[in-house]
Amino acid sequence: MSTRLLSGLICAVIGVGLLIGCGASSSSSSTSAPTTATTSSNPSSRLRAPLSKAAYQSRGLVLLQSAVNAENAKQSDATTWARVTTAYQRAHQGFQALIPPPKVADLHQRLVPVLAAAARGAAKIRDAFETGGNPKAAGADFAAGAQQLIAIGKQFSARGYTELGR
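Request: output the structure for the sequence above.
Response:
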């Protein structure tokens, strides 16, 4: 992959990060943790309530910030892409564990697999650097995922979740 294409890819992903992951929530919320209730029929099962809008955005920003930080690296090599891979894996796992507010549950369901795909795309780029292969195809996959993240970020913003829609 040429340095120019890779730089463009990194810029595209940074843009995604800026659209859906930068900044801090200016809203405050008394809901800092999901509530749990034990069902009477099965004491071992727990039902968790959806997070508030502010809590969801705040936690989402924290999860995405490491991906943005990893993407801001000045060089492109296997080490950088290993950090990007790990950051997206953590974001995927973190979002998977969140219970979104009902207003954005459908967007959340679309976001989780896109984050997993971004992690896989970054891993393909890392692997290509490590083996001396051509990361161009993996870069294309990663760029396609970035476009999906941008689209989902715009939809979050349209629903009033501006912290995740930047």
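Residues 48-166 form one domain.
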